[in-house]
From TrEMBL, chains A, B, C:
Its EC number is 2.1.3.2. The lineage of its organism: Eukaryota, Metazoa, Ecdysozoa, Nematoda, Chromadorea. It comes from Panagrolaimus davidi. The keyword Amino-acid biosynthesis does not apply. Gene3D superfamilies: Aspartate/ornithine carbamoyltransferase. This is aspartate carbamoyltransferase.
Amino acid sequence: MFTKDHVQRILEQAEKCRKGIENREIVGDELKGRVMGSMFYENSTRTKCSFDAAMKRFGGGVVDFIAEASSIKKGESFEDTISMMDGYSDVIVLRHPEVGAAERAAAIANKPVINAGDGTGQHPTQALLDLFTIRSELSTINGVTIALVGDLKNGRTVHSLAKILCLYKNITLHFVSPLNAGLEMPKSIIEYIKIHAPNFSMKTFTSFAEGIRGVDVIYMTRIQKERFTNSEEYEKVKGSFILTPKILNESREDDEDYDILGRNNNKLPIVMHPLPRVDEIAPEVDADERAAYFRQAQNGVYIRMALLKMVLGNL
Amino acid sequence: MFTKDHVQRILEQAEKCRKGIENREIVGDELKGRVMGSMFYENSTRTKCSFDAAMKRFGGGVVDFIAEASSIKKGESFEDTISMMDGYSDVIVLRHPEVGAAERAAAIANKPVINAGDGTGQHPTQALLDLFTIRSELSTINGVTIALVGDLKNGRTVHSLAKILCLYKNITLHFVSPLNAGLEMPKSIIEYIKIHAPNFSMKTFTSFAEGIRGVDVIYMTRIQKERFTNSEEYEKVKGSFILTPKILNESREDDEDYDILGRNNNKLPIVMHPLPRVDEIAPEVDADERAAYFRQAQNGVYIRMALLKMVLGNL
Amino acid sequence: MFTKDHVQRILEQAEKCRKGIENREIVGDELKGRVMGSMFYENSTRTKCSFDAAMKRFGGGVVDFIAEASSIKKGESFEDTISMMDGYSDVIVLRHPEVGAAERAAAIANKPVINAGDGTGQHPTQALLDLFTIRSELSTINGVTIALVGDLKNGRTVHSLAKILCLYKNITLHFVSPLNAGLEMPKSIIEYIKIHAPNFSMKTFTSFAEGIRGVDVIYMTRIQKERFTNSEEYEKVKGSFILTPKILNESREDDEDYDILGRNNNKLPIVMHPLPRVDEIAPEVDADERAAYFRQAQNGVYIRMALLKMVLGNL
């Protein structure tokens, strides 16, 4: 897990990367001649493409290890494959379906290994880009109220986000998942928050409308059909957790004029989603300026640029 | 559709790119740090590879969206995928099997979208490289005689070429396709030419030898077996539309010494083909200096360089 | 086949590349804007990735021809595909399952073609990196004793290595393969050595321990189960050809204090392997400083950098 200091430095570096791209101060010479070994043992389009874009914006090269085409079939061990790519690259980006894979790789490699998600384990770059998005959109992280919505049991991103938020202060978390669907936030995460962020407030909701009332951030996740044994139950639940412009508008609290940030609370909360979305956010919401999910995806490039720069910049 | 002015600027830019590569004036700094999002929803080796080469000759980076590996399976909409890549890239190159896909993408994206072919719709970069090839090989486009040969019904490239030629003057088109094979140039294209280029001359042929007699350009296309219900019919037709050195030599008109361009007509016409070829041009033709099809493929790089430069150069 | 002069120049260039990377003198501008066409008609992760890394360390671009996605299905000939890529690239790197493919390509292409392995034919870049590894690890190639171990019949790398070694002097080769397994070094290779390097000493062993006693290099290869008709036979053979720390330690000759290089012979021989390995070298050997196989893989980048630089550098 990251320290607060480390996280702050990454967020600041990511902010510099964003401005550097926007102002054309990043010219594509920064990491020229450097090689990122990209090892995706499972598909993850967004993570893969944003790491690629990050490296290439700095003028660096990417060498793709294609797992299906590889010597794995010939019986090569994970460790040997890592050692090979370690010899070819300046940094390894690893996505793997097994928990702990990134740690195993880091133990073997001489070059830095960036964990791009390992099974139900960590997905630290996603947590960082979520954090960066909240800070970018709301100018602060301390003191915000965040509704985590949907499948809170299986959604890795909401777990990682909840944990990294513990580095900040006075956050209110709304855990919003449908009644009797078994999709509640796991006790282990709640315990983690209680220990690491005792000043947090946590509330649980089964009503979508109530769960998002008055919040600063609505963090939507997908409710996967395959989690339900009863498809009738799924259809009922599904429909009630779709964010539409109407529901979004009604989330404003009419009885307060200003929110905790001193902003006029007539503003809607920002809407986040790790993507891909299916139908949990109506496309009509996209046009709203506070629909932040595509900016959130783009922020993934800045976070990954920040990490690559920090890891490779001073070599 | 392009205006004449726009097309001329692209052709001139492409000519500069060709010279820039040949003289080493293009050094690979021109688009460094810039990212092309490459989105091929269907395979097209030549189009994909030449766009990649174009971007890389300018020192730019390419981020590949791999459709089969993507979140499409999870139910993500085309529009959401475009929005994601739009956030990662400076320009999107899109190939898609559905007509209108490029327009749908352009309506969503903040960055420029280059249409690399959408179904039976447009394939504008192919039309441009065909045009560029004619101009490069013959020094002019106005006034030339072009035989379009083979499957004129289903061949998208001949439709696009015929339409873009309408921006020029006094062109003679020979539509050459086998008798009773139902592969004639569609009426809609012929009508388009009549309206947009009333000074064009159009002639229809069922004899290959007659159709290519005295022309400046023989544009060959493949006759696909699967278009025929009767395979005997196919075999008969197929054999009669194969370009051999003998047929090519006989295409010269002995009774005229100089063609419309004032060139000695003892020169053979140039031979074009969108590739891949199967057997419609005998390999023996390759050695002839007027076999232009591999230069035509290479011209695809210059046209795509021109487009990328025009779209990204002044950002 | 290479001349001695040519090989020496490549090895020296590769040494420069290694130092250039280590000292950051290679900055990623050397081949900027240049394009390597990467054509792998069969998978070869190590060769593919190390060529990619080599080109990208110089700041060059790679255009991938993906055989499965290509027009081959439409019936395009190998020659036509080469001509296409030739038009897009400054150099072609070709891996192909058929013997002679690289020569066929080179006959067609205007740009240089680097053979990255063609079937049971040549795999010259592997032979070069093996040679480079021996020179790097032992400071010399002349006069060394090398045990080639395992499947000497089907292992292409040991054939190529044995042949290229013939450019050097006074080498002793131990051919070590299991008894009655039909995996002996082919007579054609032995004849080749007798003709081209009459001053070589060659010995044949069926005992692993005896075959590696006192050598400078143990070059391990994999014994593939599918080569055996009798799986019991395989299991027996397999177990006896596994390099463990114990066997490695016992390979030292106690009765000699100094080896031919004047080094204290208490040093173990270096261990090489073309990789991927399965179980023919115990993972416990990895920690030994003379386990050279991962450095050997990394040397593949330097050799390929040397070749790309020599072929493209003075264009």
